[in-house]
Amino acid sequence: MRLKNSNVRRRAGIRDDVLNSDLISATALAAKYGVSRQTIVGDIALLRAKGEPIISTVSGYKYQKKESCYHGLIVCQHTIEETRLELETIVNMGGEIEDVIVDHSLYGQLVGTLGISTLHDINDFMSRAEKGNHLLLSSLTQGIHLHNIACNGEAEFLEIKKKLSELGLIYLG
After folding, report:
1. What three-state secondary structure class fits 39?
2. Residue 170 and residue 76: Cα distance in Å, rounded?
3. 1-63 has which CATH code?
4. Does the annotation place 104 within a ligand binding site?
5. What are phi and psi of 101, to 5 degrees?
6. Where is each Helix-turn-helix type domain found (predicted)?
7. Does the pLDDT at position 82 exceed 90?
8. Are 84 and 124 in contact (CB under 8 A)?
9. pLDDT score for 67
10. Which of 106, 95, 107, 104 is nearest to 147 (CA)?
11. Which residues contact 107 (CB under 8 A, 6 or more apart)?
């Protein structure tokens, strides 16, 4: 019974930590609670199963707050080398790249949660992609992919889309 209570207390603490921070990593939570990173991943999964709107991003966990911002979907196509340009353009114009979506011939729609909203997020994502020798999801679809973009309003979204088009990063079919 004592172990169960400590698990419940730890999960409540994790929930509060995620809720009260902009972003927190599983590694930081593991160090704080003296457990493994995998234990934190399991705790987050259990919290989500109970309805907590915790999302994972490329840099850690955050609480999905209800916002009154605009959400738009863009369809892009570009080379792997142009990825940083795409991400920096969106972020520099006030957007947050919520995810990346590709349509795979075998698995259907594949979605990767990104949560990229700062240059630090971009540097972290690109560093891990390059150092880890990972393939981007768009490499499965000849560079064609979608992004849900969150920003302040429709006008800002349309400006982001226009700039990406000028840079040749929007899919034209």
Report:
1. helix
2. 4
3. 1.10.10.10
4. no
5. -130, 135
6. 22-62
7. yes
8. no
9. 60
10. 95
11. none
**Residue ranges matching CATH 3.30.1340.20 in the chain:** 70-167
Domain 70-167 fold is Histidine-containing Protein; Chain: A; (3.30.1340)
Q: Kindly state the tokens that stand for 101.
A: 């979506």
Tens digits of residue pLDDT in 16-75 = 999 888 889 999 999 999 999 999 989 998 998 888 888 887 778 888 766 658 999 999
Taken as a whole, the chain contains a residue count of 173
d(CA 62, CA 55): 6
120 is in an annotated binding site: no
Q: Which amino acid is at 9?
A: R
Residue 79 banded pLDDT, cuts 50, 70, 90: confident
Tokens 């909203």, residue?
A: 117
